[in-house]
Amino acid sequence: MEGSTLGGKVISKIVYETLGYTPENGIAFFNGYGTQTGPKWKAFQEALTRFALTPAQEEAIVTTATRTFQKLEVWFNT
Questions:
Q1: Are the beta carbons of 37 and 6 closer than 8 angstroms?
Q2: Which of 2, 35, 37, 30 is nearest to 15 (CA)?
Q3: Chain-centroid distance, C-alpha 54
Q4: What whole-number distance in Å separates Cα of residue 50 and Cα of residue 7?
Q5: Tally of CB atoms within 10 A around 32
Q6: What backbone torsions phi and psi does residue 22 show, to the nearest 5 degrees?
Q7: Beta strands in the chain (DSSP E)
Q8: Measured between alpha carbons, how far is 77 from 67 in angstroms, rounded to an integer?
Q9: pTM attached to this predicted model
Q10: What residues does 22 pair with on adjacent strands?
Q11: How many Å separate Cα 7 from the centre of its chain?
Q12: Mean pLDDT in the chain?
């Protein structure tokens, strides 16, 4: 989910260039963390690296992420 902030920045840029909307006027949701999106993404990646010290920990992170997306899918479809 954190990675979606990167996609939001792309969407934000396209919407600005196409329709002229800005984060202050209609696209705040897509703008993510604004200028901090890149640094926060890097910090998130570094945190994952710190917490996934063993194959078992890495597997737990991936399994939990997968389950999160599965639950979101169910929630969105209800």
A1: yes
A2: 30
A3: 24
A4: 24
A5: 22
A6: -120, 170
A7: none
A8: 15
A9: 0.73
A10: 25, 26
A11: 7
A12: 94
Extract the tokens encoding 20: 């002229």
Q: Mind listing the pLDDT tens digit for each residue in 42-73?
A: 999 999 999 999 999 999 999 999 999 999 99
Name residue 9's amino acid: K
Closest CA to 33 of 65, 8, 1: 8
* Two tokens, residue 5: 């902030």
Q: How many CB atoms are closer than 10 A to CB 47? A: 11
Structural tokens at position 13: 């840029």
What pLDDT sits at residue 57? 95
**Phi and psi torsions of 26, nearest 5°:** 115, -15
Q: Give the tokens for residue 37.
A: 């999106």
Tokens of 39: 């640094």
Tokens linked to 30:
């897509």
